[in-house]
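ok new one. same drill as before - structure tokens go in, u give me an amino acid for every spot. 409 of them this time. try not to just spam alanines like last time pls lmao
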């Protein structure tokens, strides 16, 4: 039993996590809107800027298990506070950079490290340790929806700021807005003193050895790699795709906003589903639907309506893969080191994201379009759907974090 049991305390944990990730994910998912202004201002080229964005994708993932380990050991509040300060600093310094190395440092290291420290592994891990088992799926869905709502809010806000203040003024304004999340870190500063532990709690090193030798855990990583490739490619290069189709920049910002809005519903639905169905089947369905949607997009006329419908369709599963992925990790290994072990799956996600962002830049530079990236995206999504099916998972989740479960199919 956790120490946080009252409805008021549970909602405080859930809504604080959702509000915090709203800011960190809203910032991250809006960065693609700055690529064209950055290129015009610095003359570095789309490929170089895309590489900085790709490094950002990878570092955001690499930060997850490290931040999760620090949160497991020292408490969530300190990690979140450091993260928001780094995110604001990286955002504020970006307009001062005129080289690829400078952008890698500000966008790829500072901002990515900061947003990673204030993202899903730390916040979902904190919620899982503070909440009873029957509320954890719902909590992960609400926290995930917070990130989606951030995209819905920040994408059109960033575009409006770019239009009215220029891209530099927009960056500085976004840095100030980011700092507004700092007081939220205090609400999660205390460690979960009564957190439920896995039965075989032999320390973090032992947990890592056990998990990395587990076939189901590795299959989960493989599927999440594709999710990262897909999301990073779109969030980085969707503005460029819109431009290639001769449509105004507002179509890109509103498409990103619609993705975020649709994913609020998708995340809440995923949080509901993981408490009633096997998460591996939820993940397989989500990845398969992405492959179908990409192929439908390629066959459709490239109009504003097409982009908006495409965004809504993709948005339903956009980050909704997070609750079922976290649920599988929690079922296999318990919640004691969930922030760390789920953080490792997010690292796999962001390795895929590195390639999605970087290869998209290479494609547009060498081919003048993103066609082969779209086909690669569809193939990888179909493969991700298949690799989730052999994962060993219990049929129901009434005690997902109390006992390590290894049922046969």
């Amino acid at each position: 039993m956790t120490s946080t049991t009252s409805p008021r305390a549970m909602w405080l944990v859930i809504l604080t996590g959702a509000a915090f990730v709203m800011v960190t994910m809203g910032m991250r998912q809006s960065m693609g809107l700055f690529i064209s202004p950055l290129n015009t201002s610095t003359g570095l080229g789309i490929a170089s800027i895309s590489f900085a964005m790709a490094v950002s994708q990878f570092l955001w993932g690499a930060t997850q298990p490290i931040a999760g380990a620090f949160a497991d050991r020292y408490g969530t509040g300190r990690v979140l506070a450091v993260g928001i300060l780094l995110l604001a600093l990286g955002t504020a310094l970006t307009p001062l950079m005129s080289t690829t190395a400078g952008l890698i440092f500000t966008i790829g290291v500072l901002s990515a490290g900061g947003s990673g420290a204030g993202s899903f592994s730390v916040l979902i891990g904190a919620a899982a340790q503070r909440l009873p088992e029957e509320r954890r799926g719902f909590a992960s869905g609400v926290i995930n929806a917070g990130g989606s709502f951030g995209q819905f809010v920040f994408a059109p806000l960033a575009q409006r700021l770019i239009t009215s203040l220029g891209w530099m003024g927009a960056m500085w304004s976004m840095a100030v807005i980011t700092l507004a999340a700092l007081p939220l870190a205090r609400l999660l500063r205390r460690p979960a003193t009564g957190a439920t532990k896995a039965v075989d709690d032999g320390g973090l090193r032992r947990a890592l050895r056990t998990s990395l030798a587990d076939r189901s855990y590795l299959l989960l990583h493989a599927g999440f790699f594709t999710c990262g490739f897909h999301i990073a490619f779109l969030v980085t290069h969707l503005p460029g795709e819109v431009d290639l189709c001769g449509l105004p920049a507002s179509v890109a910002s509103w498409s990103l906003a619609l993705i975020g809005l649709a994913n609020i519903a998708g995340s809440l639905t995923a949080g509901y589903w993981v408490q009633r169905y096997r998460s591996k089947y939820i993940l397989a369905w989500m990845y398969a639907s992405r492959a179908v949607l990409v192929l439908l997009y390629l066959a459709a006329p490239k109009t504003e309506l097409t982009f908006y419908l495409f965004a809504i369709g993709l948005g339903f599963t956009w980050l909704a893969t997070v609750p079922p992925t976290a649920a599988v990790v929690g079922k296999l290994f318990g919640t004691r080191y969930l922030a760390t072990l789920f953080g490792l799956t997010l690292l796999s996600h962001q390795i895929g994201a590195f390639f999605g962002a970087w290869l998209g830049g290479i494609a547009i530079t060498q081919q003048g379009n993103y066609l082969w990236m779209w086909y690669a995206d569809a193939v990888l999504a179909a493969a991700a759907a298949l690799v989730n099916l052999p994962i060993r998972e219990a049929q129901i989740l009434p005690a997902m974090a109390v006992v390590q479960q290894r049922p046969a199919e």
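The two ends are 30 Å apart (CA to CA). and btw Residues 133-179 form the longest helix (47 residues).
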